[in-house]
Design goal:
This protein has 9 helices and 2 strands, in the order H-H-H-H-H-E-E-H-H-H-H. The N and C termini lie far apart (62 Å). By secondary structure, it is mainly α. A hairpin with a 2-residue loop joins strand 1 and strand 2.
């Protein structure tokens, strides 16, 4: 005989699979992770195409495609790392105050301010002061915010009239835009969430999920370990 679930049982099952409506932190983490994997793959292939004698490589269509792929996926990793951290810290605040209080008190704060203020108010600790292997989490978080802002608020400039100046200007602009590396953006997710878990007193649902335990927490451990060796 088939036993049908009660409405209460159906609601509990629904909440187990969808703890919060509109939470996209998992999706953003997966997109960032996939982009970082593609960056590493393209970098490896580009390195394999470098001349063994150390001479300047010829700019072939394939090399151009690889450079474009690295740039594209680095931008994806940066944007979605910031989006993941934004989604997580907002949800943490809303779960541990209320939807209305979180909106009233924290919505106007930028990404950096949210990660400084919210853990300090709710856990009594400014986790961005942590330094892992000499790396300041606050400094990296600021770099991520600035890099994300560069992507979503681009400002074009006129190109110089002679080739030498134009070439140098393009190179300088590319270097300026590369504020934070894709690996740092990706690793920052694990580092910040791992530090938040250390001071969390609320048993936040996110820390109980498989994707956090199997992926993000391990990312925190590996990122912290690699930085301690620097």
């Amino acid at each position: 005989m088939i036993k049908h679930r009660t409405e209460k049982e159906n609601l509990e099952l629904l909440k187990k699979n969808f703890p919060r409506i509109g939470f996209e932190g998992f999706l953003y983490f997966k997109i960032c992770s996939e982009a970082y994997t593609l960056v590493k793959r393209a970098r490896t292939e580009l390195h394999e195409r470098q001349p063994k004698d150390g001479s300047v490589p010829k700019l072939s269509p394939k090399v151009g495609d690889l450079l474009d792929e690295i740039r594209k996926q680095e931008n994806v990793a940066i944007a979605f790392a910031a989006m993941c951290l934004e989604a997580c810290i907002w949800d943490y605040a809303a779960c541990n105050t209320s939807q209305n209080k979180a909106k009233e008190n924290f919505e106007s704060l930028n990404l950096v301010a949210k990660w400084v203020v919210i853990p300090q108010l709710l856990c009594g600790s400014d986790i961005t002061k942590a330094r892992i292997g000499g790396t300041s989490l606050l400094g990296k978080l600021r770099e991520l915010k600035n890099a994300r802002n560069e992507l979503v608020h681009p400002k074009s400039k006129p190109i110089p009239d002679n080739f030498k100046d134009a070439f140098e200007a393009l190179g300088a602009e590319a270097e300026r835009r590369r504020i934070i590396a894709a690996e740092d953006a990706f690793g920052l997710i694990g580092l910040l969430l791992g530090e938040l878990e250390k001071v969390d007193k609320t048993n936040w649902w996110f820390f109980q999920t498989a994707i956090y335990k199997d992926s993000i927490k391990k990312l925190h451990e590996s990122s912290a370990s690699s930085r301690k060796q620097l």
